[in-house]
Design brief:
Elements lengths: L10 H6 L3 H7 L3 H10 L2 H10 L6 E2 H5 L7 H13 L3 E5 L5 E5 L1 H13 L10 H4 L5 H20 L12 H8 L3 E2 L7 E2 L1 H7 L3 H14 L8 H11 L8 E2 L5 H13 L2 E5 L4 E5 L1 H4 L16 E3 L4 E4 L4 H7 L4 E6 L2 E5 L2 H9 L4 H10 L3 H4 L7 H18 L3 E5 L4 E4 L4 H11 L2
Length: 427
């Protein structure tokens, strides 16, 4: 069974892939410079700030002295990232000595932004025009509802209780790689699609936005302009109203797509219309590693493999069906169980044991979230064991298994493959 890992790269991976001219164009915007500074690994941030007021090249040897010997691997990662983003320019002279210097456009604009601050192209609209704006908790509920509806449409349009405003061509962009379709059959989730549904919301959002940007040229949009607008949007204030008339025609089209995803809420007044950013939008310039603000969990897993999900969400129920047998659903409770059959179905669909375990840990109910471990060890161990058995059986290498004691004997030629498989389950 091939193991497919779906990777949701953040904006900075996309920024790094832009041609040099488009990158330099981005750095004309001080907010983009700050967004990129935010996204960098800690050591890379430190280097940028140390070099910010140095106007001459700095030797590679000098920079290596800024870290301890055991930090050299992190140093290399930081330098490589800065070069990828063209924040650092690397020069090698005739003596083969390497020097680094900050991109001048980036350096000048970041200096100005740090010292003087910046002014967004638009200010929040006055309260006497917008009158009553949604409360922050209502705005968060709206964003969650929009995102859930979008995900249900990805699973199956029949699952969603209401339709989205996305055109069929736009939905195909988002579904690319997540769904497959043969002839006149209904679309089915791919292995990547099953794995996508187990991601946390931030990772899912990065993946979808990445697809949106990757296909921007097909829709007549400049990818650099789109990245610039999305990053700029992240500096707006959650819950504040901003006049739609301050946007360009292209940005107005983009803002409608973002509203369907739940990144902004659109409202119409008597004379003006405005958009209100949600947390999904204002978190866009934060890297995946920094966006780990814990959401309210809802799942309790017991040692007997039964699960209690305190949720009324149809999406949560459909996600649990990916790896568990749902027994019954009450208005605010989903009761299910992890069985050998449900796990085998999950594995056949390309879901890995570690992804299931991670999902259960990330969504643990507050009453068990502080426990160590949050998911009983016998459940996590059993999932990995069942995955290993399924892998060995598929390749005809399983000689004997004991589920109770979690023992497995495989053919000698399978040993190396089993080691690699078990290592992949823990990555």
């Amino acid at each position: 069974m091939p193991q497919v890992k779906i990777i949701a790269k953040n904006f900075m991976d996309m920024v790094a892939s832009l041609p040099a001219m488009k990158l330099d164009k981005l750095y004309d915007n001080a907010f983009i410079c700050e967004a990129i500074l935010r996204s960098l690994p800690p050591l890379a941030k430190k280097y940028v700030l140390q070099l910010l007021y140095i106007d001459v090249p700095v030797s590679a040897k000098s920079m290596e002295e800024w870290v301890l010997a055991d930090g050299f691997s992190k140093h290399k990662v930081a330098i490589d990232r800065l070069i990828q983003l063209r924040i650092l320019t690397e020069t090698v002279d005739r003596k083969k000595e390497t020097t680094y210097r900050l991109n001048q456009t980036f350096q000048i604009n970041l200096r100005k932004h740090i010292v003087h601050g910046g002014v967004l192209p638009r200010e929040p609209m006055p309260a006497n025009v917008t009158v009553r704006l949604p409360r922050l908790e209502d705005l968060e509920a709206y964003a969650a509802e929009q995102w859930e509806c979008f995900l249900l449409h990805l699973i199956s349009s029949s699952q969603a209780e209401r339709t989205t405003n996305f055109s069929s061509s736009m939905m195909k962009i988002f579904q690319r790689g997540l769904l497959s379709q043969r002839d006149k059959e209904a679309p089915k989730l791919t292995e990547s699609g099953f794995q996508f549904l187990l991601m946390d919301t931030n990772a899912q959002l990065w993946y979808i936005i990445r697809e949106y940007i990757s296909n921007s040229e097909e829709r007549g949009l400049d990818s650099a302009d789109l990245i610039s607008f999305l990053l700029e949007l992240s500096f707006h204030v959650t819950g504040q109203a901003y006049n739609i008339n301050t946007l360009t025609d292209i940005q107005k089209s983009v803002i409608k797509d973002l509203a369907d995803l739940g990144l902004v809420k659109l409202q119409q007044g008597r004379k003006e219309s405005w958009f209100i950013p949600t947390k999904l939008a204002t978190n866009l310039s934060i890297s995946l590693s920094d966006s780990s603000s814990r959401k309210q969990g809802f799942i309790v897993v017991e040692t007997n493999f039964r699960m209690y999900a305190y949720s009324s969400s149809k999406l949560h129920c459909e996600i649990l069906r990916l790896f568990a047998r749902v027994e019954y659903q009450l208005p605010n409770l989903i009761v299910s169980g992890i069985t050998k059959e449900s796990l085998y179905t999950a594995f056949e669909n390309g879901i890995m044991a570690e992804q299931i375990i991670s999902f259960l840990q990330q969504n643990a109910h507050p009453r068990v979230a502080e426990r160590i471990p949050t998911v009983p060890e016998n459940v996590t161990d059993q999932e990995v064991f069942e995955a290993a058995c399924d892998f060995a059986r598929e390749y005809g290498g399983c000689l004997w298994e004991d589920p109770k004691k979690m023992r497995l004997v495989v053919k000698a030629e399978m040993h190396m493959h089993m080691r690699e498989f078990l290592r992949s389950q823990r990555q």
